[in-house]
């Protein structure tokens, strides 16, 4: 009986801590990863519409992609990256991420100015998709683990990021 009580006591101590963290809301990395998943789905949806030659549909999805990426990049650049830069001290990793954002923004601007029936439209969205896949992989495999290990205030950053995201989305509406 004593062994069972001790065994049960350990998970009971860990469980409330996990529940308290979840009750406090999502953390910054979870929010960013949710955006990554949403973008991946949008790019897949775009691909399906492009194969069907649904110009109106693919343009609608491409504009959603551009908007989501613009907002995502902005909250990373304004909130997450500065906090990560201070906490993890890996300027090369963060500099590369910011350069990747600049290139993605350039492609986004080109896509937003193009007509959906332009012969280069699908190619630009495809390159943007591949570029974002690469960027996401680096963030999720390198930056986010370092940020978590550095004990950044992920809950506080999440609140700030959610508020800023809401502002940006409202401004774009």
Give the N-terminus to C-terminus distance in angstroms: 61 Å
The count of β-strands is 0
Find the structural class using helix and strand composition: mainly alpha
CATH class: Mainly Alpha
Query: Based on CA inertia axes, which overall geometry fits?
Result: elongated
**Spans of at least 5 consecutive residues with low confidence:** 1-23
Radius of gyration: 20 Å
Strand content: under 5%
Biggest sheet statistics = none
State the fourth-level CATH superfamily: nmb1532 protein domain like
Give average pLDDT, whole number: 88
Oligomer: single chain
CATH architecture annotation name: Up-down Bundle
Could you say what the CATH topology is called?
A: Four Helix Bundle (Hemerythrin (Met), subunit A)
Separate helix tally: 6
User: SSE string, helix = H, strand = E?
Assistant: HHHHHH
Question: What percentage of residues falls in helices of 4 or more residues?
Answer: over 70%
């Amino acid at each position: 009986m004593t062994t069972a009580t001790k065994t049960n006591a350990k998970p009971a101590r860990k469980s409330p801590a996990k529940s308290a963290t979840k009750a406090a809301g999502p953390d910054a990395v979870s929010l960013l990863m949710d955006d990554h998943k949403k973008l991946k789905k949008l790019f897949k949806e775009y691909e399906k519409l492009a194969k069907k030659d649904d110009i109106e549909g693919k343009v609608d999805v491409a504009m959603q992609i551009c908007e989501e990426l613009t907002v995502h990049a902005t909250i990373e650049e304004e909130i997450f990256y500065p906090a990560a830069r201070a906490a993890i001290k890996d300027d090369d990793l963060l500099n590369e991420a910011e350069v990747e954002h600049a290139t993605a923004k350039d492609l986004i601007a080109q896509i937003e100015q193009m007509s959906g029936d332009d012969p280069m439209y699908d190619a630009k969205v495809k390159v943007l998709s591949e570029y974002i896949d690469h960027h996401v992989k680096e963030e999720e495999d390198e930056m986010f683990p370092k940020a978590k290990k550095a004990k950044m205030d992920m809950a506080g950053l999440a609140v700030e990021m959610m508020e800023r995201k809401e502002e940006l989305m409202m401004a774009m509406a």
